[in-house]
Amino acid sequence: MDFRKLWTSFSGKTKTTKKQRKRSQRTLYRCKRAMNSTMSDYTAAERYAEAFAKNFTTVLLGIIVTCVNGMFVFTFFKSSVFYNDPRYILYIHMVINDMLLVFFSVSLSVMAYAWPKVPLPFCVSLLIISSTTHKNTALTLAGMAVERYIAICRPLHHHQICTVRRTYILISLIWGVGVLPGLADLILLSLVRPLSVFTTSSLCSTTNVYSTPYHEEQSKITHGIYTSVVWVILVFTYYQVLIAARRASSDKSSAKKAQSTILLHGAQLLLSMLSNITPVIDKIYGQLLPTLRSKITFFNYLLTNLLPRLLSPLIYGVRDKLFFKYLKGLLSCRLFNIKVDSIKQ
């Protein structure tokens, strides 16, 4: 038996097997690389499509809210009958404030995708305006409730207390009080972080910019104070109007109407406060459904931040008979033919 031939053939087979292994490993590596590249491209395409859909939906809903509220603003400024009524002045201030809130909220949402590195001074300015408009909604509702309380419980002094000039002073105070939490956040940021932080750029969001424990505590305190004060005002005015409605012998309809109006203010306040529970809902459902966290956060933002800004002014504006009369005239292109009637309290 020729052992040399046998050894040669065996060694040749071994060399061939090693070459085949190397080739198979190279082929497998190329396949994996191609698959990873395809998956990354597919994931990037999915992310782009999801981001585009979210931004498109947010901007579209923001435009709808702005257009609907814009009709109320246009109706107000086209009808001089509303100029001397503090109730309508406060109402249209709330509508304009909600329009500003929607604009800055949508802008910040789109910027999170389109402009991830925003200069901090510009970002802080946007956050302060957004925070101020958010606080203004609740404060304006409290002012409207007080106006109704004076109209029903102090009818003889209503025209002396609730003048147009004092109404605009109240609006100025609302903006002055509403801007305080935003300024407090800015001061805390200046004290906790070095001043060089204002030369940097970052993602423009409240949780990212105001990420210190001091900001978290300050947010809880200010939110508790604002919410408590507004609810105390609403409960007090509703209780007083309820007593006046029971005691009234002649004008019970006006008292009941004011009572339902204050209840509506409470419902509007609940709608405006939905945005405060957004982080809680995101945290709860994010833990239960981690794979759908981004979608849950997005739909939560729409339901708690944008939709209430549409429903609240819409319900109040349509419910008021005089305002709805002029609004209907505007929509039917007969606004200028409507005769101005006296305002019924």
From TrEMBL:
Query: Could you name the Gene Ontology cellular component terms for this entry?
Result: membrane
Q: Where does the chain cross the membrane?
A: 56-77, 89-114, 167-192, 221-241, 262-281, 301-318
List the InterPro entries. GPCR1_Superfamily_Member, GPCR_Rhodpsn, GPCR_Rhodpsn_7TM
Location within or outside the cell = Membrane
Keyword list, A-Z: Membrane, Transmembrane, Transmembrane helix
User: Which GO terms of the molecular function aspect are on file?
Assistant: G protein-coupled receptor activity; odorant binding; olfactory receptor activity
| Organism in which the protein naturally occurs | Cyprinus carpio (Common carp)
Cite a single Pfam family from the UniProt record: 7tm_1
What's the chief localization of this chain?
A: membrane
Is Lipid biosynthesis found in the keyword set? no
Location of the G-protein coupled receptors family 1 profile domain: 68-316
Can you name this protein? Odorant receptor 131-2-like
What lineage does the source organism belong to? Eukaryota, Metazoa, Chordata, Craniata, Vertebrata
